[in-house]
Amino acid sequence: MTLVTLEGLGFCAEGEGGAFAARGRLRVRGGELPVNTDGGGPSARHPGMRGLHLLVEAVRQLRGDAGERQVRARDGQLPRLGVASGTGGWFCSSGTVVLGRD
Predict the structure, then answer these.
(1) Distance (Å, rounded) from C-alpha 27 to C-alpha 95?
(2) Mean pLDDT of the chain
(3) Per-residue pLDDT at 84
(4) pTM reported for the whole predicted model
(5) Which of 7, 38, 92, 96 is a Cys-bridge partner for 85, taking CB atoms 3.0 to 4.6 Å apart?
(6) Backbone angles phi, psi at 58, to 5 degrees
(7) Pairing of strands 81-88, 93-100
(8) pLDDT at residue 45 greater than cutoff 90
(9) Dihedral of alpha carbons 22, 69, 81, 47, sign
(10) pLDDT tier for residue 10 given thresholds of 50, 70 and 90
(11) Checking phi first, is residue 24 left (phi over 0); if not, alpha (psi -120 to 50) or beta?
(12) 48 burial via Cβ count (<10 Å: 0-12, 13-18, 19+)
C-alpha cells in the first residue's frame, strides 16, 4: 500500500514505486521522503489501529518531539510539512492529510 500511495500522491509515476523506494528515498535516516518514522504498524502498534497514530506521529515530527526517530532536513531544521495517509476497511476507504508548521 505504501508504494501505491506514493504513486497516487504523485511522488513518483504509476508503476515506479518499487524503484523509487529501492533507491533509499524512503529511509528515515538520510532519505528524501522518510516514511513510517515510528517503524510502521508492526513496530509501533497493531496495523488495524494505524489511522490516528499516523496523525500523532506526523505532529510529533513537526513539533520536534519524536526523540531518536526525529527527522531533520539536510540543514538540520525540523520538517515543515507532514503527510499522513492510510487505507482501511479491506482497502475500500482511504484518507490523506497534509499538515504544516509555521
Answers:
(1) 23
(2) 88
(3) 93
(4) 0.85
(5) 96
(6) -60, -45
(7) antiparallel
(8) no
(9) positive
(10) very high
(11) left
(12) exposed
Handedness of CA 73, 41, 91, 94 (dihedral sign): negative
Identify the pLDDT of residue 47: 59
Nearest to 101 by CA among 74, 72, 68, 67: 72
Q: For residues 93 and 33, what is the distance between their CA atoms, to the nearest angstrom?
A: 24
By CB atoms closer than 10 A (0-12, 13-18, 19+), residue 15 is exposed
Residue 22 corresponds to which amino acid?
Answer: A
Q: What residues contact 89, with CB distance under 8 A and at least 6 apart?
A: none
Tell me the residue length of the chain. Answer: 102
pLDDT at 64 over 90: yes
Q: Tell the residue number behind the cell numbers 526523540, with chain if given.
A: 67
Residue type, 52: L
